[in-house]
Write a structure and sequence with these properties.
single chain; alpha+beta; OB fold (Dihydrolipoamide Acetyltransferase, E2P); six-stranded antiparallel sheet; three-stranded antiparallel sheet; globular
Length: about 120
Amino acid sequence: MLKFTEDHEWLKLEGDVATVGITTHATELLGDVVFVQLPDLGTKLNKGDGAAVVESVKAASDVYAPLAGEVVEINQAIVDDPATVNADPQGKGWFFKLKLADVAAMDGLMDEASYMKHIG
């Protein structure tokens, strides 16, 4: 099950670890992604903290921590080939995995239907 934030991040929960990336809508707004900077492993983030940076031909944008937790894995493949973010934003283009401080906080995020209304 995917959850979404108002800042165009998506999360997929597996146990107490959420895979985080940016939505297809976000990649459409950004255009071609040319650079990605990811957080360091072990970084502790609070909800709303800047976690990563994505740069496109149009703009640079922060990717925010959707929930509090610790970075336990990063996707080096998108650093090596940023175009992967555009090609498969909600699949192979994921950014990092976050061990959540509070799994129940996922309930406060939007489901896909709510997100689609949000970007409507």
